[in-house]
Design a protein that fits this description.
- The protein is an alpha+beta fold.
- The chain has a domain of 107 residues: OmpA-like domain (60s Ribosomal Protein L30, Chain: A, 2-Layer Sandwich), CATH 3.30.1330.
- 32% of the residues lie in helices and 13% in strands.
- The protein has 4 helices and 4 strands.
- The chain has a 4-stranded mixed β-sheet with strand order 1-4-2-3.
- The longest helix is centred in the last third of the chain and has 21 residues.
- The radius of gyration is 24 Å and the shape is globular.
């Protein structure tokens, strides 16, 4: 009897999971898979490109991922505000996306000081994104201190490249 019951249950389960879609009332639902109608991609207002592709489009502001800071500072500069606003709009429109903000410093200062300053920079970007509507659960901030330099020359131009907060999206970290 058990040998007959198991195949009958499996058949009933497979029949319930058939490809004919129904809503909760049992009515059939229109299948548009072959009609050419695709899913619309959401984009942030005022930006070219679409959806996830905008993150890698060099002509789109979302492809820029670094917020630069002055020496010994974690105050966001006015020139970084459009970049942060664009990323905040993208996060609001794509609530499934998550980001990691990595705070970086130049090599000057002790290791402990640079870790703390890098965290303050990452937190400043995180707070700005949150104030512009991104959800706290979408954003994580971490400090790398001086451990991930973009440039290794001992010059002010090089140091300026290393004083930054890098924005990484899900799949990039």
């Amino acid at each position: 009897m058990k040998k007959l019951l198991l195949p009958a249950l499996l058949s009933a389960l497979l029949a319930a999971c058939s490809s004919t879609a129904t809503d909760t009332t049992g009515a059939k639902v229109e299948d548009r898979a072959g009609s050419g109608a695709g899913v619309a991609t959401v984009t942030a207002p005022g930006m070219s490109g679409s959806g996830i592709a905008a993150l890698t489009d060099p002509n789109n502001i979302l492809s820029k991922r670094s917020v630069y800071f002055d020496y010994d500072s974690f105050v966001i500069k006015s020139e970084a505000k459009p970049l942060i606003e664009a990323h905040a709009r993208f996060l609001v429109q794509n609530p499934q996306m998550k980001i990691l903000i990595q705070g970086n410093t130049d090599e000057r200062g002790s290791r402990e000081y640079n870790i703390a300053l890098g965290q303050k920079r990452a937190d400043a970007v995180r707070q700005a994104l949150s104030l512009l509507g991104a959800k706290e659960g979408q954003i994580e901030s971490v400090s790398l201190g001086e451990e991930k330099p973009r440039c290794t020359d001992a010059s002010e131009a090089c140091y300026a490249q290393n004083r930054r907060g890098d924005i990484l999206y899900s799949g990039e970290f």
